[in-house]
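User: Here's a structure from my thesis project, written as structure tokens. My advisor, Dr. K., wants to see whether a designed sequence matches the one we expressed. Can you design one independently, without my sequence as a hint?
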């Protein structure tokens, strides 16, 4: 979804709002340099697993009721989606439990991050900003993107559609304008990945 090249994967990467995803685990296993942040990392692996088991049926039911909003190509149906996501979460939980001493998972959240300016080569934000436009207001979007541009040389955000209506987030244009006014080079770049129907672009901000 972020069109990551082999060169990108060798960079120092920040994952924002990573939650119980397996990207950190898989990249770290292959020698990558990545730190993930999310407020759920204040909890233990047991607590996170309990929460996953609690909300998982509701999430899958919601996807099933709105399955026309998704592209069923690489993943054939809701059942397979559930299997894929549960496997990814198992990978995360195993790694998370064993990685507490490494500092690869930090309890932090936008718009305030505990990092130095330009500490990361690349920041990735998946399925948080823009997706939840009804819950995260424009001011928070602008502040979050400015913060990401302080701590990383490049920022990529995907998807750009609001989950409430599958339309482009109303916050996207104001965010791009605010970043451009601050001297950041921003663009919309096509990606090959598409699961949420119509989510075919990512926001790329060249911050340094």
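Assistant: Designed independently from the structure alone:
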């Amino acid at each position: 979804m972020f069109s990551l090249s082999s060169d990108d994967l060798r960079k120092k990467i920040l994952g924002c709002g990573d939650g119980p995803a397996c990207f950190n685990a898989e990249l770290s296993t292959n020698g990558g340099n990545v730190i993930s942040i999310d407020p759920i990392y204040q909890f233990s692996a047991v607590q996170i697993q309990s929460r996953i088991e609690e909300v998982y049926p509701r999430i899958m039911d919601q996807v099933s009721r709105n399955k026309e909003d998704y592209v069923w190509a690489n993943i054939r149906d809701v059942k397979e989606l559930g299997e894929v996501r549960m496997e990814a979460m198992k990978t995360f939980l195993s790694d998370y439990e064993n990685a507490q001493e490494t500092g690869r998972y930090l309890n932090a959240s936008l718009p305030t991050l505990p990092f130095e300016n330009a500490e990361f080569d690349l920041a990735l934000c998946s399925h948080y900003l823009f997706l939840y436009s009804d819950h995260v207001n424009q001011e928070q979007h602008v502040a979050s993107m400015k913060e990401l541009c302080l701590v990383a040389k490049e920022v990529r955000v995907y998807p750009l559609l609001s989950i409430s209506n599958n339309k482009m987030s109303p916050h996207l244009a104001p965010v791009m304008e605010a970043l451009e006014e601050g001297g950041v080079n921003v663009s919309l770049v096509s990606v090959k990945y598409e699961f949420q129907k119509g989510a075919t672009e990512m926001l790329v901000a060249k911050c340094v």
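When you compare it with your expressed construct, this may help: The longest strand covers residues 120-126.
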